[in-house]
Amino acid sequence: MFEFQTYIARLTKMDVVIPSIYDGASATAEAALMSFRLTHKNKIIISSTLHPHYRKTVKTYIAPHEPEIVELPYNDGLVDIDKLEKLIDAGVASVIVQNPNFFGGIEDVAEICELVHAKGALLINAIAESMSLGVLKAPGEMGADIVAGEAQSFGMELNYGGPYNAYLATRKQFLRQLPGRIVGETIDADGKRVFVMTMRAREQDIRREKATSNICTNHGLNILAANIYLSLMGTEGLYKVSLLNTKAAHYLENLLLKSGKFEKVFHYPFYNEFLLKSKNSVSTLSEKLLKNNFIPPLEISKFYKEEGLKDVLLFAVTEVLSRLDLNRVAEILAE
To answer: CA nearest 163: which of 117, 217, 109?
Structure first.
């Protein structure tokens, strides 16, 4: 746990890390609850480009607090900064923004933080794809107050929907409002290096019903897998894989646009996911890809009902796809 905390602290540039939360959605919800405790307010602004499952989870978690929830619209696939400036006021506890967002777009977290902090609110940066930290500027360097991240891509192979493992990272002054537990390093009576549970005021210990959360697992196997992966990859390895994801995604986008079968939806910077509007039947495209053993892109209209997002697909490219794979995908979709 201490090793994983260290890796995530370095990647996020945050002071303290809770290494084991069920998944990115519940970590984001825990971050929202933290912001209520820290600010003593219950109004929250949630970006509409936050993963739809994350949004539902946050709303479920915070419902007992009878919060005022404001949805922040997007503009050209990214947070609408002008709307945020109008919506935020002194009564807001926190603003939740995902980066890269659900559309794959890279948000200007630094500018958003400046606006949020000017009104005395906290900025929660949700990260559904932590591999992006290999190339993107760390949230801590851009002013984020709480980072809620999903670590699945760090060596955790999915089996029938799991396992996932998330983390919460924050600033030192917010330490006592973190749920879960932290492992600390110290020395014993003989001067030997040892590790101990610290800041552990948990529900099954001393606080019980006054606990900050009901988290009751340390996800030991998941953390071990992530440690092995991160230690083997190192800084340079993570950077190379992250850069490969970025370049491969842009390569596929260019191929699909050249085919004449797709058109751009938004003009935004993206990491390894992007949106394109199909000129042909979406269901037919999915069937073609499945027949050739490729997982088809996601139909955005399943989550967003705007007219402009009809027949729009969310493509995701990772290091498991070679250049030949991407060429084949483009061929199939150009038929």
So the answer is: 217
Q: What token pair was written down for 92?
A: 């807001």
Using a CB cutoff of 8 Å and minimum separation of 24, what contacts does 57-64 make? Answer: 57/25, 57/26, 57/28, 57/29, 58/25, 58/28, 58/29, 58/32, 58/96, 60/29, 61/26, 61/29, 61/30, 61/32, 61/33, 62/29, 62/32, 62/33, 62/36
Q: Which two tokens stand for residue 197?
A: 């549970």
**What fold, for 2-228?**
Aspartate Aminotransferase; domain 2 (3.40.640)
Token duo for residue 273: 């996911």
Q: CA 230 to CA 224: how far, in whole Å?
A: 10
Domain 235-334 in this protein, CATH class: alpha beta
Structure confidence at residue 31 as a pLDDT band (50, 70, 90): very high
Cis peptide before 163 (omega within 30 of 0): yes
N- to C-terminal Cα separation, the chain: 50
Judge residue 82's burial from the number of C-beta atoms within 10 Å of its C-beta, 0-12 exposed, 13-18 middle, 19 or more buried.
Answer: exposed
Burial (CB < 10 A; 0-12, 13-18, 19+), residue 323, is exposed
Q: Are 31 and 169 in contact (CB under 8 A)?
A: no
Query: Alpha-carbon distance 243 to 132, whole Å?
Result: 9
Identify the DSSP state of 159: B
Predicted confidence (pLDDT) per residue in 87-126, tens digit: 999 999 999 999 999 999 999 999 999 999 999 999 999 9
- The number of CA neighbours under 13 Å toward the Cβ of 128 is 23
Predicted structure pTM score: 0.94
| The 146-150 sheet, strands edge to edge | 16-21, 166-170, 146-150, 122-127, 92-98, 43-47, 68-72
Under 8 Å between Cβ of 89 and 118: no
Question: Domain limits of the chain?
Answer: 2-228, 235-334
Calpha distance 234→222 (Å, rounded): 18
